[in-house]
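Researcher: Sequence recovery benchmark, item below. Answer with residues only.
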């Protein structure tokens, strides 16, 4: 019997996401400051938490112009990253081990992009990516991919959610699936299935975000 490849396993596992025609796809974010916040905060967390951060920020910013420079300046005006974290009621860190506040990562990224003269999506070049990954917690480039996805690029971000999905598909542990490998397999699976990589990324993220709720329902059902 021919050996099933890792790609074939991922393609098969995509069936758990349902009919691709029914997948929700995140709206393209034309406001670069919102895309930046989304990109940094979305790594490894459930969708609801990111939506709350964005909603709280928007409620505070009726004067925003959407540029990284404006975002960085506003964070400084309210007292810096610590105050920003308090304002959006989220003190998550980029890593549980020596990570900085995601609020600080956002401020650093906004400052770097502003310094590079980036004002809109057209400025998201490979050279700017090299600046982006110098911020603590962003070295893998996963949040950069998240920024590209948020602004409409057809790619995937190999964060914990994607790695967890690939690990389940290939019958291994998340720790054994590198970000690069997860990225490679999911992009290839999208091509194999003839679907948008961006749409598949969002479908996986939504599915994995809902995993705790599915486990809770399964436990409740099993104990009844």
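Model:
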């Amino acid at each position: 019997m021919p050996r099933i490849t890792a790609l074939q396993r991922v393609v098969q596992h995509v069936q758990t996401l349902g009919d691709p025609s029914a997948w929700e796809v995140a709206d393209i974010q034309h406001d670069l400051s919102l895309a930046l916040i989304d990109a940094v905060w979305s790594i490894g967390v459930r969708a609801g938490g990111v939506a709350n951060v964005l909603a709280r920020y928007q409620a505070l910013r009726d004067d925003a112009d959407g540029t990284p420079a404006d975002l960085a300046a506003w964070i400084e005006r309210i007292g810096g990253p610590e105050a920003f974290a308090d304002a959006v009621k989220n003190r998550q860190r980029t890593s549980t081990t020596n990570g900085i506040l995601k609020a600080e990562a956002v401020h650093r990224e906004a400052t770097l992009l502003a310094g590079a003269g980036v004002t809109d999506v057209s400025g998201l070049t490979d050279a700017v990516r090299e600046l982006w990954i110098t911020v603590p917690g962003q070295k893998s480039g996963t949040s950069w991919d998240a920024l590209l996805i948020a602004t409409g690029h057809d790619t995937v971000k190999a964060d914990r959610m994607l790695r967890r999905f690939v690990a389940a598909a290939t019958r291994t542990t998340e720790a054994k699936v590198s970000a690069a490998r997860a990225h490679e397999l999911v992009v290839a699976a999208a091509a194999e299935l003839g679907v948008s990589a961006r749409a598949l990324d969002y479908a996986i993220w939504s599915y994995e975000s809902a995993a705790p709720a599915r486990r809770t329902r399964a436990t409740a059902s099993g104990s009844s």
